[in-house]
Design goal:
The complex is a heterotrimer of chains A (168), B (102) and C (630).
Chain A: H1 2-21, H2 25-45, H3 49-74, H4 77-87, H5 94-111, H6 126-133, H7 138-159
Helix pairs in contact in A: 1-2, 2-3
Chain B: H1 6-26, H2 30-55, H3 59-89
Helix pairs in contact in B: 1-2, 2-3
Chain C: H1 7-22, H2 30-55, E1 62-69, E2 79-85, H3 86-109, H4 116-135, H5 139-157, H6 164-195, H7 200-210, H8 216-232, H9 241-244, H10 250-259, H11 264-271, H12 273-277, H13 280-303, H14 307-327, H15 331-358, H16 371-374, H17 376-390, H18 397-411, H19 417-442, H20 456-471, H21 486-491, H22 508-532, H23 534-541, H24 544-554, H25 559-577, H26 582-602, H27 609-629
Antiparallel strand pairs in C: 1-2
Helix pairs in contact in C: 1-2, 1-4, 2-3, 2-4, 3-4, 3-10, 3-15, 3-20, 4-5, 5-6, 5-10, 6-8, 8-11, 8-13, 10-14, 10-15, 13-14, 13-19, 13-24, 14-15, 14-18, 14-19, 15-17, 15-18, 15-20, 17-19, 17-20, 18-19, 18-22, 19-22, 22-23
Classes of the chains: A mainly alpha (168), B mainly alpha (102), C mainly alpha (630).
Chain lengths: 168, 102, 630
């Protein structure tokens, strides 16, 4: 099973890097879905089958579909790819890459501290998660539902097609 | 189940997060910025699940659930804003939308 | 019944609030109903409480009503509490009763004025503040009332604010009393710092226990409080504001600048009499201030030509008598004189108001004359009050109260022959300037025609006060004249009696006889100069030295001239030189640096999201590095 973890990890990193470098939005989204699916595999290996399922259903399913819808609604096409090519220049990658590398180095240093605890991961059943979710975390759940409601209202309000008076 | 060192799981989360950060800083298209944000959120969730697995507790997974909720909310509002921006500025270039400068 | 005590200040305060908020909108006829009515009710409450206090005296001869705790900070918790004892009862009775009469009078006097409701609002606020001052159980509440009456005094002196002269007079009164108030504030700080409380009774108790007689601290505290009293009561050297304060409406002069507010200093010292009993030097200072003031103000009063200024100087002089009484430890005599003075001085001002009003706002006494036949009510009431002021023997209140003070100055262990002599000399001066005023205004031939006659509402208070000016003294008479001591005995519930020293060769009868003699001499001089031989008065003022002296006294011993040069001009000069306050440079410099920073930081505000995100990321990375590697 360790092998599965490493393969999934490599796939996740590779597809994520590809996702952020694509010029075509739909291509990027597809790579991103691959990345999310491989992270789902990692979850499964780590003994979180419930979360793995959610990752596939909600992230790779619902959220990404939302992105696809928006891209379709905007109807960007070839012109947008050309635009992207103009917007992206090679030199722009220098700063952010350095920042990202420093961050990775710091995390690696942090993680590679003394005491490399190896754990035999026992799977945590969805039942345990459910009990904890509706026990001590009940208020969190309620707040999350309210947040979603807020997002729903907000998204509806912002997405409405109104005659804009402030249009240039 | 596999016995994977926690360090490696966290390292994976860190790398994904850094890649997402780089994407956020580099891309000028708002849709790509939102996607990078999703990557970063997902990486943070991964770190929680890894830590939860390390201690054999369900709490890590619960926090992932909350992050998931937040990501969904953020994406829906964010994409609505993207639509708005596109309608108003006829572009998705984030640098063009800089009316709130000092 | 005593628990209605809070109503005494609350009723005028309510009147003030109603008039201040609704005064402009209510019909003019309603204004005096609220204005005078609230004070009238307050006076009725005061009378009921006095009756109750007399019939069933509460334990400890005092009654404290705690309403609530004002604040509670670091061991300092003054209460909004009213303290009633014989002293505050007498004061409150006089203030509310005389106050009511003057409000009643004002209802007609101010009727034509456009600031009718404003006037009553201020007056009501004044009565409320004055009652707070008198009833406050701690020095902080007393100080609140103290500043409240100061504010009302300022507002009422400058009541006719369209004339800049009135505004200047108001400002002068405010600033000069502020000098005294600063001293008083320092005194309060000192007392609280050393004794840990401002509750008056507690304070007096602790002072008595902690401080030995004559030590530095009580003397210092006593002198600082005296500073406040001197400012408020217009005593030397801060008396210069009172004559100018006559710029206000005449009822104001009667109520605030004659009968009540200016005696607040007397009350303060009587209230803290324990402090002065352990600070003999401070008490001596009180006596000296009193005697010096009563003499100097007497001389100034002789030379004035404005009827109200004569009365103002006589007020300063009479309060000097009260200070003298306090200074020699004749506490109840001071309060007795306060009471009789409130009656006759309020009446003098009210009658003067009637005359001024009738003569087209004529203030100069040299343009009046012969009013005895024309205005009999004003004449007889003014005469009664004037005789009381001068101390016409046997039948007037002023004779008894002043006699008590003068006898105290002689007989008390803290009195002396010199104090007694100046007090008696003061009687001569008082008699002289009072009868000069009466002879000039009411005798001789008429010089100005009467323009309108006062109505009932103005004359009634005058008549009531005239009766009181005469009979008010019979509550306390000397040994050889009935030997009644009811007033003094009542006050001894709150104030200690005079500590009489060994008899020094003169009895009370002797003292009173000499007082009578001084009165008669003054009367005779006035008669000689102003009725019999007017040319004599002119002859005596022709030599250059007499003219100079006249000018000198007329300008109040050159005090204003002196202060103008010693204080006002240097301060004005500094203000002019330092117009651009150099300390301001520090602050404007700070503003400049802030602005520079602003221009720097503004550059980072690009409005570009990615730039902000990069900032956040870089910041987090740096902090993570600090956590990791430091």
């Amino acid at each position: 099973m360790e092998v599965v973890f490493y393969i999934a990890a490599i796939v996740a990193i590779a597809s994520t890097v590809l996702a952020i470098t694509r010029l075509n939005a739909v291509h990027a989204l597809l790579y991103l879905i691959v990345s999310l699916l491989s992270v789902a595999v990692v979850f499964f290996v780590l003994g979180a089958p419930f979360i793995a399922a959610l990752e596939v259903i909600i992230y790779a399913g619902a959220i990404m579909v939302l992105f696809v819808f928006v891209v379709m609604m905007l109807n960007l096409g070839k012109k947008a790819t050309e635009m992207e090519r103009q917007l992206q220049r090679g030199s722009m990658w220098v700063g952010p890459s350095i920042l990202a590398l420093i961050l990775i180095a710091e995390v690696a240093y942090l993680v590679a501290g003394p005491g490399t605890a190896v754990y035999g991961a026992a799977a945590i059943e969805p039942k345990q998660v459910g009990i904890a979710l509706f026990g001590p975390y009940l208020i969190g759940v309620e707040l999350a539902s309210m947040l979603l409601l807020g997002a729903l209202v907000g998204a509806y309000h912002l997405g409405r097609r109104t005659p804009e008076k402030t249009e240039k | 189940m596999a016995s994977i060192p926690m360090q490696q799981g966290l390292l994976l989360a860190g790398i994904l997060f850094a890649v997402g950060l780089a994407g956020l800083l580099v891309r000028r298209n708002v849709i790509f910025m939102l996607m990078s944000l999703e990557i970063m959120l997902n990486a943070a969730g991964l770190a929680f699940v890894v830590a939860g697995a390390r201690w054999g507790q369900a709490d890590g997974q619960i926090v992932f659930l909350f992050i998931l909720t937040m990501a969904a909310a953020e994406v829906s509002v964010g994409l609505a804003l993207v639509l708005r921006i596109y309608r108003r500025f006829k572009t998705l270039d984030a640098d063009a939308v800089s009316e709130m400068r000092g | 019944m005593l628990h209605l005590l809070w109503l005494i200040p609350a009723l005028p305060l309510a009147g003030f609030l109603i008039l201040a908020t609704l005064g402009k909108r209510m019909p003019r006829k309603m204004v005096p109903v609220f204005g005078a009515g609230s004070v009238g009710l307050s006076a009725i409450v005061a009378i009921l409480i006095a009756f109750n206090f007399l019939t069933s005296t509460p334990p400890g001869n005092s009654y404290t009503q705690v309403l609530w705790t004002w604040m509670d900070v670091g061991g300092f918790h003054p209460q909004i509490a009213f303290y009633l004892d014989a002293l505050s009862l007498v004061m409150v009775l006089v203030v509310t009763f005389v106050g009511f009469l003057i409000h009643f009078y004002s209802a007609e006097f101010m009727e034509e004025d456009e600031g009718y409701s404003r006037f009553f609002a201020y007056m009501n606020l004044f009565v409320a503040s004055m009652c707070t001052l008198l009833l406050g159980s701690n020095l902080l509440l007393l100080f609140l009332g103290w500043e409240g009456v100061g504010l009302c005094s300022y507002l009422l002196i400058g009541f006719w604010y369209r004339d800049p002269v009135n505004g200047l007079a108001a400002r002068k009164a405010f600033i000069v009393t502020r000098v005294g108030d600063t001293a008083m504030t320092l005194g309060l700080f000192l007392l609280f710092d050393k004794l840990g409380t401002l509750n008056i009774q507690e304070l007096m108790h602790r002072a008595l226990v902690q401080w030995p007689v004559g030590s530095t601290l009580p003397v210092l505290a006593g002198l600082l409080l005296l500073g406040g009293a001197v400012g408020k009561s217009a005593q030397l050297p801060l008396q210069t504001w009172l004559p100018d304060a006559m710029a206000g409406p005449t009822p104001t002069s009667a109520l605030i600048h004659a009968a009540t507010m200016v005696t607040a200093g007397v009350y303060l010292i009587a209230r803290t009499h324990v402090l002065y009993s352990i600070a003999p030097q401070a008490q001596l200072a009180v006596a000296v201030v009193g005697v010096a003031t009563l003499t100097l103000a007497g001389f100034s009063a002789i030379t004035q030509s404005d009827i109200k200024r004569v009365l103002a100087y006589s007020t300063v002089s009479q309060i000097g008598y009260m200070f003298l009484a306090l200074g020699v430890g004749a506490w109840s005599a001071a309060i007795f004189h306060f009471m009789t003075h409130a009656f006759f001085k309020a009446l003098l001002f009210l009658a003067a108001g009637v005359i001024i009003e009738s003569l087209h706002h004529e203030h100069s006494i040299f343009k009046m004359g012969g009013l005895r036949k024309e205005m009999p009510v004003a004449f007889w009431t003014f005469l009664a009050a004037g005789c009381s002021l001068a101390g016409l023997p046997l039948i007037t209140a002023g004779f008894y109260s002043k006699g008590l003070i003068i006898w105290g100055a002689w007989s008390s262990t803290r009195g002396s022959g010199a104090l007694w002599f100046f007090a008696v000399f003061g009687v001569l001066l008082t008699s002289l300037y009072t009868f000069r005023l009466i002879f000039l205004v009411f005798f001789g031939e008429m010089k100005t025609q009467i323009h309108k006659r006062p109505g009932f509402r103005m004359l009634m208070p005058c008549v009531v006060l005239a009766i009181l000016s005469v009979v008010g003294g019979f509550v306390d008479t000397p040994e050889f004249l009935g030997n009644i001591h009811s007033f003094t005995d009542f006050l001894h519930l709150a104030l200690p009696p005079v500590t009489e020293g060994p008899l020094r060769g003169m009895s009370e009868l002797g003292s009173e006889s000499l007082v009578t003699l001084a009165f008669l001499i003054g009367l005779y001089i006035a008669y000689l100069f102003f009725i019999r031989k007017r040319e004599l008065a002119e002859a005596i003022t022709t030599p250059a030295i007499a003219k100079a002296l006249h000018r000198f006294w007329y300008s109040d011993w050159g005090m204003d001239w002196l202060y103008e040069r010693v204080f006002v001009r240097p301060v004005m000069w500094i203000a002019r030189v330092d117009k651009n306050d150099f300390i301001d440079y520090i602050y404007s410099g700070m503003a400049l640096i802030t602005e520079l920073f602003y221009h720097g930081v503004r550059k980072t505000e690009t409005g570009r999201m990615r730039w902000y995100a990069a900032g956040i990321a870089a910041g987090s990375i740096i902090f993570l590095a600090i956590v990791l590697f430091l």
